[in-house]
Design a protein that fits this description.
Number of domains: 4
Bound molecules: adenosine-5'-diphosphate, magnesium ion
CATH topology of the largest domain: Rossmann fold
CATH class of the largest domain: Alpha Beta
Shape: globular
Strand order of the largest sheet: 5-6-7-4-8
Strand content: 5-15%
Length: about 450
């Protein structure tokens, strides 16, 4: 079914009404509510916001999603641009009051005990635990619940979209609810730098130090951002040491382990490793399934099980993308009406699926599997029937079926021109063996982890 509204400004009223649902309260209240319709330029639609800061933020985080919504509402729209229209003074003031970035005077009250920057959806109850994140979850919970400092700092690291920020907010919420008197500061390394620079400029370094050195718990997210920012690092180093000396809890996150953080001074990297360092691994199929099921239960539309399994198979990059996919198919079904189906899902996620696929080719899978089983890549295509070669080859076919969207026949073609029935048989065999052969099951898990990384 096609939407018959031709006027794009009218269409925008429908799309903007969904922004809160699609992107969440936090994004909506903070940024997206400022969007206004400006101009219909055919394939391009122009929206406006009151400040460059809001524009940049929306462009970096939400533009793709907004463009998708437009594309689904009206196929003609290919590009969405956001410009700054400053006349919208009211909104601007309004936003400046809420944004900590804009305040030059720092005080503990603006940050600690303040839950403004915390996403209400990021709490322990909503965090789905599985093998890849169970240690990080346990450590975060321990820090949140403990009255003494057991490991300092707690250092969480892992790839983007795997739950680091979610866990940190969960700790902050827990402390806020259970110990409202404790001074807890959560901020990103970028905000730390902002505050620091602002304090230098406004000559309020005393306030700054006062604030950061008198907290009970300090959490700094995405510490890799400090890479190369030497004076910010220096200041942070002093804050860090002062808090550790006072036995105050510090929690840090980064996209890499302390020792791999380039651009961060050696003395800092070594201290980051003093406490407990835990990594969050890439998701497994089981965890993705669990997360999707939990999220689907909280949606107002029904997502059929085959769609959930399809997403868990296809969207392997990270949890943020999984959520994005759910939001897209939900938005699509709301726009065009009717139930969510596998067909509709494929359609709605065309681009996303292609992006997830482009990452993995049959060659890459063959290479990884060959390496894992210590056989030659050429054996993937050879006609050898020896078990030591034939089994890995079957595993590789199975992985190709799960990690690419190629047909049985196309996969067979790349394994030395084998027939589609050979590939089907391999997939069936490997699925069977997973249940009966624990060693092979383990191999498969390891490979899935490597291939989803
Ligand atoms: P990171 O900070 O590691 O880049 P986030 O914490 O921002 O990742 O997580 C990205 C999104 O995925 C968030 O919306 C978060 O709620 C969700 N998410 C990540 N891991 C889980 C999980 N285990 N259970 C539920 N939601 C998760
Ligand atoms: Mg994060």
């Amino acid at each position: 079914m096609k939407i018959e509204i031709e006027n794009k400004e009218q269409l925008w009223t429908h799309i903007s009404a969904q922004l809160q649902d699609v992107f969440g309260d936090h994004a909506y209240r903070g940024w997206l509510r400022f969007l206004k319709f400006e101009e219909d330029a055919g394939a391009k639609v122009i929206l406006s916001v009151p400040t460059a800061f809001i524009r940049d933020l929306i462009k970096s985080k939400y533009l793709e999603g907004i463009t998708d919504l437009w594309g689904q509402a009206n196929e003609e729209v290919k590009v969405v641009d956001i410009i700054v229209v400053e006349k919208n003074e009211e909104a601007r003031q309004d936003n400046f009051e809420n944004a900590p970035k804009a305040s030059s005077k720092l005080s503990l009250d603006t940050l600690s005990g303040n839950t403004d920057g915390l996403d209400p959806r990021f709490n322990f109850d909503n965090f789905v635990v599985g093998k890849p994140n169970e240690l990080a979850y346990a450590a975060a919970l321990r820090v949140a619940e403990s009255d003494t400092v057991n490991f300092n700092p707690l250092f969480l690291y892992g790839g983007v979209g795997l739950g680091k920020t979610h866990l940190m907010h969960s700790i902050a919420w827990h402390l806020h609810n259970m110990h409202p008197k404790r001074k807890v500061i959560y901020l990103s390394a970028e905000q730390f730098m902002d505050y620091y620079i602002r304090s230098l400029r406004h000559k309020t370094m005393i306030d700054f130090r006062d604030m950061f050195r008198n907290v009970d718990v300090l959490m700094v997210d995405d510490i890799q951002f400090m890479s190369g920012k030497n004076s910010t690092q220096e200041e942070f180093f002093h804050t860090f040491n002062a808090l550790i000396d006072q036995k105050k809890q510090i929690i840090l996150s980064a996209d890499q382990s302390p020792s791999d953080l380039t651009g961060i001074e050696e003395r800092m990297r070594s201290r980051f490793g003093w406490g407990l360092v835990v990594d969050i691994h890439p998701t497994t199929y089981e965890l993705r399934l669990g997360i999707l099921q939990a999220k689907a239960e909280n949606l107002d539309v029904k997502i059929p099980q085959d769609v959930i399994e399809f997403l868990a198979h296809k969207i392997t990059s990270n949890v943020r993308e999984l959520e994005g996919a759910l939001n897209k198919i939900r938005a699509r079904s709301m726009l065009i009406g009717g139930p969510i189906t596998l067909e509709g899902t494929r359609e709605a996620l065309k681009d996303l699926l292609r992006a997830n696929e482009r990452l993995l080719t049959v060659d890459e899978i063959q290479r990884q599997v060959a390496e894992h089983f210590n056989i030659r890549i050429s054996d993937m295509k050879s006609s050898k029937r020896l078990r030591a070669v034939a089994r890995p080859r079957q595993v590789a076919m199975y992985m190709c079926k799960n990690f690419t969207s190629k047909s049985w026949a196309a996969i067979g073609e790349e394994f030395g021109g084998r027939d589609h029935s050979t590939v089907m048989h391999a997939c069936k065999k490997v699925t069977e063996l997973k249940g009966t052969d624990p060693d092979l099951n383990e191999d498969i898990h390891i490979l899935e982890r490597i291939l989803s990384a």
